[in-house]
Design a protein that fits this description.
By secondary structure, the protein is an alpha/beta fold. It folds into 2 domains: 168 residues, Quinone Oxidoreductase, Chain A, domain 1, CATH 3.90.180.10; 136 residues, NAD(P)-binding Rossmann-like Domain (Rossmann fold, 3-Layer(aba) Sandwich), CATH 3.40.50. 28% of the residues lie in helices and 25% in strands. Strands 3, 4, 5, 9, 10, 17 and 18 form a 7-stranded mixed sheet that branches. The protein has a 6-stranded parallel sheet with strand order 13-12-11-14-15-16, sandwiched between helices. Strand 14, helix 8 and strand 15 form a beta-alpha-beta unit. Helix 4 crosses helix 5 and helix 4 crosses helix 10. It is globular. It starts with a strand and ends with a strand.
Length: 343
């Protein structure tokens, strides 16, 4: 089969590799679409270093089951499915608490985090544990279904962890693809005023078209002053979905008493300062969110199936696997949203 194999940083090669065969508790999926995540790009370009070579990245796939192991009963060949990019032991204290993404025995297919990294979905086929398979709703396209994992992360951060309530005034800092998904989840959940902050006018135009009530470019105006002009009492919830440390600091500066704030986008080990006394008396709540869980995946699929969120709206490019080097180039440009790879 054809696969994009990463042999070293900046050394991505299209190669013919052996077809995967399933173990008794595994499933092989013929990939129909796979989202291109920023963590994939960081692995390819050497921005993150926790990569073992050779490897196949790509961890946001949808497809059709092509083979099942002999112990697998809940899916069969021909089923249209979505693949959760991780799996867990199911027995440790974290798994028993529903926090599978904390599992120390977890694995990832083409992703980041666990030490056990298995071949991912920038390929024509991939295999994974049967427990990581979810049925794709029939009314959801393969391209939209490939965004289930990032949408599940948005639901987990905004709804499950930060507990956004109907009518909350919400600020999203950073409205690339993941920030847009957070914004769309917040809108579907009944956000009141929904403010998008980004240094890119391209991103802000997208945010406005997808439901932001207000947009702010911090390079052109004082973001804190503008937020408090719009919401004199300050935001109920702030989600940092940008990545740079400056976005985290802006989130800290935007707080008022009782504000909930979610450190969602930054993954680099950088420091920011907090005034301890002020943080104490503001009595807000900080959350963070990484990875996904079976619950979050199920919720994301329900959002798509019922039409509450349509992730196709964040797709800016659909690129064939054979043209993946073009996709890598586009990932490094500012005017793009979600790229989906089509084998």
């Amino acid at each position: 089969m054809l696969a994009a194999v990463l042999h070293d940083f900046n050394d991505l090669r299209l190669e013919d590799v052996p077809m995967p065969t399933p173990a008794p508790d595994e499933v092989v999926v013929k990939i129909k679409a796979c989202g291109f995540c920023a963590t994939d790009y960081k692995a390819i370009k050497g921005i993150r270093k926790n990569v073992s070579f050779p490897c196949i990245v790509g961890h946001e796939p949808s497809g059709v089951v092509s083979a099942v192991g002999k112990y697998v009963k809940h899916v069969k060949e021909g089923d249209e499915v979505v693949v959760m990019p991780s799996g867990s032991c199911g027995y440790c204290k974290y798994c028993r608490q529903g926090k599978m993404h904390y599992c120390k025995q977890s694995f990832t297919t083409g992703g980041d985090g666990p030490e056990d990294v298995r071949p991912g979905a920038f390929a024509e086929y991939m295999k994974t544990a049967a427990s990581s398979i979810f049925p794709k709703p029939s009314n959801v396209s393969f391209e939209a279904a490939a965004i289930t994992e990032p949408l599940s992360g948005a639901w987990k951060g905004v709804i499950q962890y930060s507990e956004m309530e109907i009518g909350d005034d919400v600020v999203i800092i950073g409205v690339g693809s993941i920030g847009l998904l957070c914004m769309m989840v917040a809108k579907a959940a009944g956000a009141g005023r929904l403010i998008a902050i980004d240094a890119s006018d391209y991103a802000l135009r997208n945010a406005k078209s997808l439901g932001a009530t207000h947009i702010i470019n911090p390079r052109k105006e004082d973001a804190r002053k503008r937020v408090y002009d719009i919401i004199p009492d300050g935001p109920d919830l702030i989600v940092e979905a940008a990545g740079p440390i400056q976005a985290v600091q802006l989130m800290v500066d935007l707080r008022r008493r009782g504000t909930k704030w979610n450190v969602f986008g930054i993954t680099t080990h950088e420091k920011f300062e907090l005034d301890g006394g002020l943080t104490h008396f503001l009595e807000g709540r900080m959350d963070a969110s990484f990875g996904t869980t079976p619950l979050a995946m199920s919720k994301a699929l329900r959002l798509m199936e019922t039409g509450l969120v349509n992730p196709e709206k964040v797709i800016s490019h659909r690129i064939a696997l054979r043209d993946i080097h073009k996709a890598v180039e586009i990932m490094g440009t500012p005017e793009r949203n979600k790229i989906v790879i089509i084998p």
